[in-house]
């Protein structure tokens, strides 16, 4: 079957660029139901595919040589792979991309500016502590975690990095301009989806549309009923299987190795792994860990209130805005 004839460039008009575990999948799900908008089925992860901090799973060592995904424009294999994603969608009014770690890679904003000069970017944020904890349990489900949350904070720095919004948002705004960056809070999205979607519609260039009749939520999560058992299984088998997921990513023509790897991954992830996911909610975070993260992530996000022009302590119960040097000096002088 041939792809529909394209009358427009086969590339995204807007990108949902992060942050992970902040409702981006549900946003994708809603927008993809609009008759004038289409997305590739899965996250694309093209512009940051060569960033080992964002995507260590896209790097392999074979015979002493580095096997990685090269998203440079002169690499025909990956360039054609990306183009084919959008050619397959046909002549829609708007095409979107969903790649939820773009926010955190320092080169992606520059690449988007160069290669997609008119594309707009949407970022979704949530309470940074809740986001970090959610990412931990997602990593557990995806078979990458073999330790407690506290242990993961030392072994997986991306959990903390993924809740560090302010410096990355500032870079995107500096590179693209404020008019091409739209920022949404998950808490607002949950409280009034229609109002948030009206703002997003205006931003990407479609008429605001009623959500009546739309399916509104996606990605309900199950949790391990016995976390220590799942950590043990992940250490023994799961983390090795999880590495197989991306062996064929960005490869238009995959060989026998990649096809077998995908079959093993799909069987384990969809048939074996769910046997351990029997709980509807995770255990509560330890209070001392929550206190530590409240201070750390508030400090790492210094200036976010001003950037969003909003008092985030009214939205995020864990939020404790960082004290600036001037504030500290004034406080000491008053004593």
Describe this entry's structure for a reader:
With 335 residues, this protein is of the alpha/beta class. Helices cover 43% and strands 8% of the residues. The chain has 14 helices and seven strands. It has helices spanning 24-31, 76-87, 108-115, 128-141, 149-155, 158-161, 166-176, 186-191, 193-204, 227-242, 256-272, 287-300, 304-308, 325-334, and strands at 14-16, 37-38, 60-62, 65-67, 94-98, 120-125, 181-185. The strands form two sheets. A five-stranded parallel β-sheet has the order 2-5-1-6-7, with helices on both faces. It has a two-stranded antiparallel sheet with strand order 3-4. The longest helix has 17 residues, at 256-272. It is globular. The model is unreliable at 323-335 (pLDDT under 50).
Q: What fraction strand?
A: 5-15%
**SS field, number of helical segments:** 14
Order the strands across the largest sheet as they lie in space. 2-5-1-6-7
Largest sheet: 5 strands, parallel
SSE pattern: EHEEEHEHEHHHHEHHHHHHH
Helix share bin: 40-55%
The shape, in one word, is: globular
Low-confidence stretches: 323-335
Number of strands: 7
Report the structural category.
Answer: alpha/beta
* Amino- and carboxy-terminal Cα gap: 76 Å
| Mean pLDDT across residues | 90
Radius of gyration: 21 Å
């Amino acid at each position: 079957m041939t792809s529909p004839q394209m009358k427009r460039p086969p590339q995204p008009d807007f990108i949902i660029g992060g942050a992970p575990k902040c409702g981006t999948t549900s946003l994708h799900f809603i927008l993809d139901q609009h008759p004038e908008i289409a997305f590739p089925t899965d996250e694309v992860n093209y512009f940051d595919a060569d960033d080992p901090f964002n995507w260590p799973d896209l790097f392999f060592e074979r015979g002493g040589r580095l096997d990685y995904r090269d998203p440079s424009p002169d690499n025909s294999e990956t360039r054609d792979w990306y183009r084919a994603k959008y050619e397959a969608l046909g002549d829609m009014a708007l095409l979107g991309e969903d790649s939820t770690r773009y926010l955190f890679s320092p080169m992606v904003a520059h690449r988007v500016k160069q290669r997609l000069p008119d594309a707009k970017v949407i970022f979704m944020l949530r309470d940074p502590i809740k986001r970090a904890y959610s990412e931990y349990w997602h990593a557990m489900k995806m078979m990458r975690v073999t330790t407690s949350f506290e242990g993961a904070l030392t072994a997986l720095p991306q959990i903390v990095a993924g809740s560090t919004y302010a410096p990355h948002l500032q870079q995107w705004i500096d590179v693209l301009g404020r008019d091409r960056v739209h920022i949404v809070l998950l808490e607002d999205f949950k409280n009034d989806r229609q109002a948030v979607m009206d703002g997003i519609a205006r931003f990407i260039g479609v008429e605001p549309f009623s959500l009546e009749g739309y399916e509104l939520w996606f990605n309900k999560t199950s949790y391990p009923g016995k976390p220590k058992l799942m950590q043990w299984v992940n250490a023994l088998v799961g983390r090795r299987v999880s590495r197989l997921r991306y062996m064929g990513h960005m490869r238009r023509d995959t060989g026998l190795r990649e096809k077998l790897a995908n079959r093993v991954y799909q069987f384990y992830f969809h048939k074996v792994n769910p046997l351990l996911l029997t709980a509807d909610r995770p255990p509560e975070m330890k209070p001392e860990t929550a206190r530590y993260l409240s201070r750390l992530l508030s400090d790492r996000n210094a200036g976010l209130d001003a950037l969003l022009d909003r008092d985030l302590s009214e939205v995020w119960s864990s939020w404790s805005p960082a004290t600036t040097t001037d504030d500290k000096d004034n406080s000491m002088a008053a004593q």
